[in-house]
């Protein structure tokens, strides 16, 4: 485990080039097949890995919430990840993954940690259409295109955290989100995010400010859509800014990540003047420096609708 922790510390400085690193772990046997499958989480989300500390049970806790722990003076909630996905650990919940994303810190209890693998995003395929419950965003082919490649399920931790919140939590407050967005008639915001829950929240925010948008699920899908919109604009004697007001992209996505999408846009003469806002649950100075290095116009952390709306207004200019 100490070796894996060292790898986490070293590799969080990786400068993305349509690559990422996946921390692999196991949650126990699944009820359906009785196998212990591999699951994964982006290393950028992992702050540290510790042996399971003593957990204090909290009265009235929601299902799957084991309680809280005191970790170097910080009280953090601990989520039983095995229970959430329907697995039964054979040896117990031995490890806690301490994660930081979406403006929060939490621990995920898992059975064991395996290794860290470096992958191309092209090795990761969207799994949304083939999985129930929205907990898995993608499937990583750990050994590339080999017929017998190992597979790891990349969990949608944003969706899992959302399930831990009270049902009456308001997603977007239309009264506080601010003024309507004014953009060129006929133009849209092109958005990309692989998380279903994130797309839903983004859509609510854009609806609340009156912005028309096209929603895509991967960076590649957004890039392909941008190409087709450019062709349509040319056919009408227009330019891409008549069709697209700005691009809003997540960072972690199958096939093409947000860093690569942004770099492609900013290095292409046809699109380099398009504003790009990166909207991600990944936070910290390292990621913000990466955002600047690929030429994005702004970065906003998930998910506060008012901040997202304010950033969009500032970038678009209205």
Number of DSSP strands?
A: 17
The number of distinct helices, counting runs of at least 4 residues, comes to: 9
Query: How far do the termini sit from each other?
Result: 51 Å
**N-to-C SSE series?**
HEEEEEHEEEEEEEHEHEHHEHEHEH
Q: Which shape, going by the Cα principal axes?
A: globular
Which band does the percent of strand residues land in?
25-35%
Q: What does the radius of gyration come to? A: 20 Å
Largest sheet: 7 strands, mixed
Which class best fits the helix and strand makeup? alpha/beta
Give the arrangement of secondary structure elements:
Blueprint: H1 2-11, E1 19-30, E2 36-42, E3 46-51, E4 65-71, E5 74-80, H2 81-85, E6 87-88, E7 95-101, E8 104-110, E9 112-120, E10 124-126, E11 136-141, E12 151-155, H3 157-163, E13 188-192, H4 196-208, E14 213-216, H5 219-235, H6 240-243, E15 244-249, H7 258-266, E16 276-280, H8 285-293, E17 298-301, H9 305-316
Parallel strand pairs: 2-12, 5-8, 13-14, 13-15, 15-16, 16-17
Antiparallel strand pairs: 1-2, 1-6, 1-9, 3-7, 4-5, 7-8, 10-11, 11-12
Helix pairs in contact: 4-9, 5-7
Notes on the structure:
The structure is a single chain. With 318 residues, this protein is of the alpha/beta class. It is built from nine helices and 17 strands. It has helices at 2-11, 81-85, 157-163, 196-208, 219-235, 240-243, 258-266, 285-293, 305-316, and strands at 19-30, 36-42, 46-51, 65-71, 74-80, 87-88, 95-101, 104-110, 112-120, 124-126, 136-141, 151-155, 188-192, 213-216, 244-249, 276-280, 298-301. The termini are far apart.
């Amino acid at each position: 485990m100490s070796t894996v922790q060292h790898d986490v510390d070293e590799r969080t400085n990786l400068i993305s080039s349509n690559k990422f690193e996946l921390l692999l772990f196991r949650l126990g046997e699944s009820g359906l097949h009785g196998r212990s499958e591999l699951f994964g989480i982006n290393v950028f989300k992992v702050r540290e890995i510790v042996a399971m500390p003593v957990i204090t049970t909290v009265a009235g806790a929601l299902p799957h919430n084991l309680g809280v722990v005191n970790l170097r003076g910080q009280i953090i909630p601990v989520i039983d990840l095995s229970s959430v996905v329907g697995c039964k650990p054979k040896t117990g919940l031995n490890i806690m993954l301490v994660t930081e994303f979406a403006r929060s810190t939490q621990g995920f209890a898992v059975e064991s940690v395996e290794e860290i693998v470096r992958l191309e995003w092209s090795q990761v395929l969207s799994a949304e259409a083939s999985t129930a419950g929205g907990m898995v965003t993608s499937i990583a082919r750990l050994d590339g295109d080999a017929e017998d490649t190992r597979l790891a399920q990349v969990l949608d931790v944003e969706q899992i955290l959302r399930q831990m919140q009270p049902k009456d939590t308001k997603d977007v407050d239309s009264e506080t989100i601010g003024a309507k967005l004014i953009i060129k008639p006929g133009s849209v915001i092109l958005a990309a995010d692989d998380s279903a829950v994130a797309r839903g929240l983004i859509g609510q925010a854009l609806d609340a400010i009156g912005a028309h948008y096209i929603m895509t699920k991967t960076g590649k899908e957004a890039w392909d859509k941008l190409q087709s919109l450019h062709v349509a604009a040319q056919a009408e004697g227009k330019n891409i800014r008549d069709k697209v007001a700005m691009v809003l992209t997540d960072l972690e996505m199958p096939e093409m990540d947000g860093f690569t999408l942004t770099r492609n846009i900013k290095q292409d003469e046809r699109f380099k003047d398009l504003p790009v806002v990166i909207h991600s649950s990944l936070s910290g100075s390292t990621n913000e420096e990466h955002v600047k290095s690929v030429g994005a116009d702004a970065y906003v952390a998930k998910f506060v609708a008012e901040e997202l709306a304010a950033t969009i207004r500032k970038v678009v200019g209205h």
